[in-house]
Fold these 3 entries.
Entry 1:
Amino acid sequence: MGVVSVDEGLRRAEAVGLDLVEVAPNSSPPVCKILDYGKYKYEAQKKANIARKRQKTFEVKEIKVRPSIDVHDYDVKMRSMIRFLNDGDKVKVTVRFRGRELAHQNLGQRVLERIRDDLDELAKVEQFPKMEGRLMTMVISPR
């Protein structure tokens, strides 16, 4: 419709039975549209809901192991980690040391290295192993 005054725009919108909505207030001159404002708000809310649904959310699953983990227990934990990674979740692997095990942190380091090597083609290390008190943690995420 070109550049018209605010009064003229309001008259035209009222003649059609719709609302005059300012679409781009920062442009010079401001851009307005004649439309049904209720319908406009509804569709904008619908677009926002669809965008929120498509947004990928992931959880951090935690797997706890011990430095002296047995073969079968290791395999069970590994199956869980593979399932979590295939679902798109991150996995936080925690090695808990008790008592005198704290003197042998290299055993916990070896367990975490073994997990990293076994999951090499499926996941990447996001946070390398570090000690936090009696716990050694590592975070891995899917590739």
Entry 2:
Amino acid sequence: MSGEHMQIGEVAARTELSLRTIRHYEETGLVIPSARSQGGFRLYTEADVARLMVIRRMKPLGFTLDEMRDLLAATDLLDGGDRLPDAEREQLLDRVRHFEEAAQRRVADLRTQLARAEEFAATLRGRLPSA
């Protein structure tokens, strides 16, 4: 399916994002459909779906649209091949490492929040009569 195009409905189903959200990401420049049908419908490729999945995974970690754009720009350049000068390539890799470290910190914070929420739910459960 690598060369085939998908309409926005299929992309929404595959990414579990709403049509509105996908259109919003297009408006903000985060993802641009690879093509348009003769009727003007947005058409997406597997690469577009992969890009949307990166965005979807960043969102619950609290990354801003600008941060998403920054990471996607860095990975786009890195995916462009070996034609980058070594210094520029290393700078881009450092940027990606920064995002990976930030993601790890945010995941740890979410785990802490989840543990506290579970403790709270257990406390409430302990106050209820046994069934």
Entry 3:
Amino acid sequence: MSTRPSAQASLPGRGTAPSHAPTAPARLVVLIPAYRPDARLPRLVTSLRRDLEGVQVLVVDDGSGPAWADVFDEARQRGAEVLSYPVNAGKGRALRRGLARAADAWPGADVVCADADGQHTPSDIAAVAGRVRESGRMTLGVREFTSPVPARSRIGNDVTALLFRGATGWRLRDTQTGLRGYPAGGYGWMLEVPGDRYEYELSALLRAHEMGLEVEQVGIETVYEPGNTSSRFRPLRDSARIYAPLLRFTGASLGGFFIDWLMVLLLHALTGSLLAAVAGARLVSGASNFAMNRRVFRATGPLWRTGVRYVLLAVGLVAASYLGLAVLTGAGAPLALAKPVVDGLLYLASYTLQRRVVFREHG
């Protein structure tokens, strides 16, 4: 982890045009999605414009309502551009709206997305912006969790990071961070990422992994108020949304595995042939798993094309499963135990190939 750059050194050229000017000569856009913010939002705008050179602050009012109009008016007065719409649509929708505006109004500027609740300091925003400018890559501001942190935040982040690593192989320390930077001209793909609420940010990381992008990580402070009372995160509902891209595949895979496990035991008992049992069971479970995963990955390509890819993958997995079972059972392991061990090892390869090859249509 490199030393954080100073705000003044990394972002030259403060723009002087009014906040509403569509062609302000910004080198950096700080995009802040906000839902019912408090006085910390205008203070953040002031700090950013004071401390970061060449910055344009873009706030997206995610349907907060008339009672919060004064807060957004003050943010405007302090130099931010504010986009508003009347009905709350979610953080993902607000981020897409802001990114589209930034690409249109300031195409030569890097974009750093930050939260409105004071969790991201101007110095940390500058650190992420500096790494984006230096590397030209998507950059995450990862929380160090060295200070007292609400248990739900620490546990939630650890669980998501573990699931994400299992699904992608990426070792990201903070998959839920809202402080993220994108290089100028290099975030158009974010406008196509699905999800309107908190799941959007995890889906963006999954899409970045699919695209083979490299992601930088910069350590930042962990700032929480006592009890984290201002958080709009709803633990049960929003956690379900965040984990949904991973859990849908896991659920379909578990269903297919259960069918496969039963069929292997049944066919082996009937035929006495391990090869026949593995191949026959995979035909039965594969058909049901294919149908489920077309929905999981929202496949849009022709049925025959994804079907051919899936069959080729299934043949490869059958061969790998047979070899693994032959080795373990040959070493004396019971078939009922060897089967889940082998399939567990094949799970990650299956997920990656289905997401990136089988059910993805390449332009």
